[in-house]
Amino acid sequence: MSNETDRITHLEETIAHQAKTIEELSDQLTEQWKVVEQTRAKLDRLTERFLSLEEQSLEAPAITRPPHY
C-alpha cells in the first residue's frame, strides 16, 4: 500500500509542477504577444510616416523652356 501511495504522491507532484510550468509559459506568451502587438503598431506608424514623406518628396518637376526656344 505504501508503494501505491508513494506513486500517487509522485504523480500529484509531477502534475503540480506541470501545471505551474504551463501557467508560467502562458504568462510569457501573453507578454510576448503584447510586445508583438506594440511592434506591429510601431511598424504601421513608421510605414505611414515613410509613405507620407515619400509623397512629399515627389514634387512635380519644374516647368522650364526647352533649350531650343
What is the compact description of this entry?
This protein is an all-alpha fold and 69 residues long. The protein has one helix at residues 2-57.
Notes on the protein architecture:
This protein has 69 residues and is mostly helical. Helix content is 81%, strand content 0%. The chain has one helix spanning 2-57. The longest helix is centred in the middle third of the chain and has 56 residues, at 2-57. It starts with a helix and ends in a 12-residue tail after the last helix. The model has no long low-confidence stretch (mean pLDDT 91).
Itemize the secondary structure elements and their pairings.
Layout: H1 2-57
Mean pLDDT: 91
Q: How many individual β-strands?
A: 0
Report the major sheet.
none
Radius of gyration: 32 Å
Order of helices and strands: H
Structural class: mainly alpha
Low-confidence stretches: none
Distinct helical segment count? 1
Strand content: under 5%
**Fraction of residues in helix:** over 70%
N- to C-terminal distance: 111 Å
Name the overall outline.
Answer: rod-shaped
List keywords for this structure.
69 residues, 1 helix, mainly alpha
